[in-house]
Amino acid sequence: MNRLWLARHAQTEWNIQGRMQGHRDSPLTELGKQQAKALGEALKNHSFHAIYTSTAGRALATAAYVQAYHPNAPLIATEDLREIHLGPWEGMTKTEIAARWPKEVELFWHQPAEFQRIHGGEDYRMLYERLGRWWADFQKSARSGDWLVISHGVTLQVLFLLLEGANLTELHRENILHQCSLSMIEWEEGCPPRLVFRNRISHLEGLLD
Q1: Distance CA 21, CA 94 (A)
Q2: What stretches of the chain adopt beta strand conformation (E)?
């Protein structure tokens, strides 16, 4: 049996300011550091072949707290697991973005399949494609056991769709993932992946934003 554990990164300064991060970054807050420690504690009794992470600083910082319990699990950072690239929206607050791009914001959140990239950013189809590349590469090396991915809210939501074979129109049917929440997918060779649970937060008591 293969099990892929998935966690969103911990809270950042821009999260609490309501700023879109995308490919840009901001440091973990003190609460974020506590969330990352709690994630590490929750996973300390599992044995991972490897920890895959986005190359973003917030994901790497979160992963460091988890890897402290798993020194023999290599940390593999990859661009393919980064958040969706949001072009000029990055660093802006959601209010500022909505004032300048109201139609695009409506599509982004409510009609994801129709959303078009903004000035050098990505659309959801581009994100879906790069996650597909990562999944294909991952499966070539995957073997029975547990693996961990630490990535981003939108990226993980799109990855769930990819693994379930669902359409982009279903992207926001579930609430956004909590920071440092856990999800898990399992599969056996020759069988499609199955989402076992999503957005588990029992290990974050008192630490939600």
Answers
A1: 11
A2: 2-8, 48-54, 75-78, 145-151, 182-187, 194-200
Q: Is the residue at 209 inside a domain? A: no
In our burial notation (b when 16+ CB lie closer than 10 A, e otherwise), range 137-175 reads ebeeebeeebbbbbbbbbbbbbbbbbbeeeebeebeeee
Query: Quick one: what percent of the chain has pLDDT higher than 70?
Result: 100
Domains in the chain: how many in total? 1
Q: What is the pTM of this model?
A: 0.95
| Domain coverage including residue 52 | 2-204
CATH code at 114? 3.40.50.1240
Indicate which residues carry an active-site annotation: 9, 83
CB atoms within 10 A of CB 189: 10
- Say whether 26 sits in a helix, a strand or coil: coil
User: For 79-131, what is each residue's pLDDT tens digit?
Assistant: 999 999 999 999 999 999 999 999 999 999 999 999 999 999 999 999 999 99
Listed in sequence order, the residues at least 6 apart from 82 whose beta carbon sits closer than 8 Å to its beta carbon are: 23, 54, 55, 56, 151, 152, 155
Whole-angstrom Cα distance, residue 191 to residue 193? 7
Q: Give the whole-angstrom CA distance, residue 122 versus residue 127.
A: 7
